C-alpha cells in the first residue's frame, strides 16, 4: 500500500511538473514572441542604442556603415534625396551627415570624428564639418597652449606615444588640423591626441604643401555654407626596379611600430546655399613637394581613393547628386 501511495505521489509530482513545465514553456514562448514583436517594431531604436555603445560615440540620429554606391537608375534602385541638414542634432550627427566610411574603432570628439587603426597606430580616417563660423578663432585660444598626448581611450597595446616620434625624423602630422578647431581651447586641445596623428615628412610637406591644402579647405567656407572633409593615410604599392614587381613598403617608427604612410588623402564635399554639392579629392605623397607645385596637380578620381583606402566616402550621398567633381561639371548641371 505504501509503495502504491509512493508511486502515486511520484506520478503526481511528475504530472504536476510536466503541466507546470508546459505552462512555463508556453509563457516563455509567448514572452519570446512578444519580445520579437517589440524587436521588429523598434529595430531603428535598437540600431541607435547599439551605436551608442561604441566607445566615444555619443547618442545621435541613426547612422549607417558604408555600403556600395549604386548609380541612379541602375538595377532599378531609386535615388534618395540629399540627407537634410541636422541643425539641432548632436555635433557628431552634423559632422557625419552623409554617412560613415566605416565604424571600426570610432572615436568622436567635440568637433571631429575619427576611426582608429590599432594595427598601424594611426587613423583610418578623420571627419570634419566646417562652416564660416566654426573656423573662427575665439579670443584666448592658442595652439601653443596645446600639448601632444596619448589617447587613453585606446588600449595601451595599440597607442602611439610621443617617444615613438622622438628622433624619428617625422612630424606628428594632424589629420584634423588644429587650425580648423579654434572656437574654444578644448576643441583645439583634442586635435593633439596622437590618435589624430600620422608620421609626416616635416619641411616640404607637413609644414608646407600639406598645410597649404588644409588652409585651402578652410577658405572653401567662403564659397560653401557647409564643408565636409575626410582625411587619412594611404599605403600605396610601387614597382621595384630590381624585379619589376609591385610592393607595398613603408617604414615604422618607435617602440610601438607606428606606420609611416606613403601618401595621404583628403576628400572634400562643399554645399552651396542652394544645396548644390561639389566634391574634390586629393592624394599627396608623403615626401618633400616643391612649393610651386599647384594643389590641383594632386586631384584624383574619388573612386581611386576609395579603392586604395578600402573605404566608401559619403555613402548616404548618391554620386549623381554632385554638380561638380574636381571642378568639372557633371550630369545636367
What's the arrangement of strands in the largest beta sheet? 1-2-3-6-11-12-13-14
CATH domain fold name of the largest domain: Extracellular Endonuclease, Chain A
| CATH class (first level) name of the largest domain | Alpha Beta
Biggest β-sheet description? 8 strands, mixed
H/E element sequence: HHHEEEHEHEHHEEEEEEEHEE
Number of helices: 8
Which percent band covers the strand fraction?
15-25%
Average pLDDT rating = 82
Instruction: Kindly report how far apart the N and C termini lie.
Output: 98 Å
The CATH homology group name of the largest domain: Extracellular Endonuclease, subunit A
Please tell me the total number of domains.
Answer: 2
Quick tags:
about 325 residues; alpha+beta; Extracellular Endonuclease, Chain A; 2 domains; eight-stranded mixed beta sheet; 14 strands; about 25% helix; globular; disordered N terminus
Protein architecture, described:
- The structure is a single chain.
- Residues 1-21 and 37-79 have low confidence and may be disordered.
- The chain has helices at residues 2-41, 43-52, 91-95, 162-165, 185-190, 202-206, 209-219, 302-309; strands at residues 106-108, 113-117, 122-130, 170-174, 197-201, 226-234, 238-239, 246-247, 252-253, 258-259, 263-271, 277-285, 322-325, 328-329.
- Strand 9 and strand 10 form a beta hairpin.
- The chain folds into two domains: 1-41; 59-329, Extracellular Endonuclease, subunit A (Extracellular Endonuclease, Chain A, 3-Layer(aba) Sandwich).
- The strands form four sheets. The chain has an eight-stranded mixed β-sheet with strand order 1-2-3-6-11-12-13-14, with helices on both faces.
- The protein has eight helices and 14 strands.
- It is α+β, with helices and mostly antiparallel strands and 333 residues long.
- It starts with a helix and ends with a strand.
Amino acid at each position: 500500500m505504501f509503495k502504491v501511495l509512493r508511486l502515486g505521489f511520484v506520478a503526481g509530482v511528475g504530472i504536476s511538473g510536466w503541466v507546470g513545465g508546459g505552462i512555463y514553456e508556453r509563457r516563455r514562448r509567448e514572452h519570446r514572441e512578444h519580445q520579437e514583436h517589440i524587436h521588429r517594431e523598434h529595430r531603428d531604436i535598437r540600431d541607435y542604442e547599439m551605436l551608442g555603445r561604441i566607445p566615444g560615440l555619443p547618442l545621435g540620429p541613426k547612422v549607417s556603415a558604408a555600403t556600395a554606391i549604386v548609380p541612379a537608375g541602375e538595377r532599378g534602385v531609386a535615388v534618395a534625396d540629399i540627407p537634410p541638414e541636422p541643425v539641432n542634432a548632436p555635433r557628431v550627427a552634423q559632422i557625419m551627415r552623409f554617412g560613415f566610411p566605416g565604424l571600426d574603432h570610432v572615436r568622436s570628439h567635440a568637433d571631429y570624428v575619427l576611426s582608429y587603426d590599432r594595427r598601424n597606430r594611426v587613423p583610418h580616417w578623420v571627419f570634419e564639418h566646417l562652416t564660416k563660423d566654426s573656423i573662427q578663432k575665439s579670443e584666448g585660444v592658442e595652439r601653443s597652449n596645446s600639448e601632444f598626448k596619448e589617447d587613453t581611450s585606446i588600449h595601451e597595446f595599440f597607442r602611439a606615444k610621443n617617444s615613438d616620434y622622438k628622433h624619428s625624423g617625422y612630424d606628428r602630422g594632424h589629420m584634423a588640423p588644429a587650425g580648423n578647431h579654434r572656437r574654444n581651447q578644448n576643441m583645439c586641445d583634442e586635435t593633439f591626441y596622437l590618435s589624430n596623428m600620422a608620421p609626416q615628412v616635416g619641411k616640404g610637406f607637413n609644414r608646407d604643401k600639406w598645410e597649404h591644402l588644409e588652409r585651402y579647405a578652410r577658405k572653401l567656407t567662403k564659397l560653401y555654407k557647409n564643408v565636409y572633409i575626410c582625411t587619412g593615410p594611404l599605403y600605396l604599392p610601387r614597382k621595384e626596379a630590381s624585379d619589376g614587381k609591385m610592393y607595398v613598403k613603408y617604414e615604422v617608427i618607435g617602440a610601438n611600430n607606428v606606420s609611416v604612410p606613403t601618401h595621404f588623402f583628403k576628400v572634400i564635399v562643399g554645399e552651396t546655399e542652394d544645396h548644390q554639392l561639389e566634391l574634390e579629392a586629393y592624394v599627396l605623397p608623403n615626401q618633400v613637394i616643391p612649393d610651386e607645385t599647384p594643389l590641383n596637380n594632386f586631384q584624383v578620381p574619388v573612386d581611386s581613393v576609395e579603392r586604395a583606402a578600402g573605404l566608401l566616402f559619403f555613402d548616404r550621398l548618391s554620386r549623381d547628386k554632385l554638380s561638380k567633381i574636381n571642378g568639372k561639371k557633371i550630369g545636367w548641371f
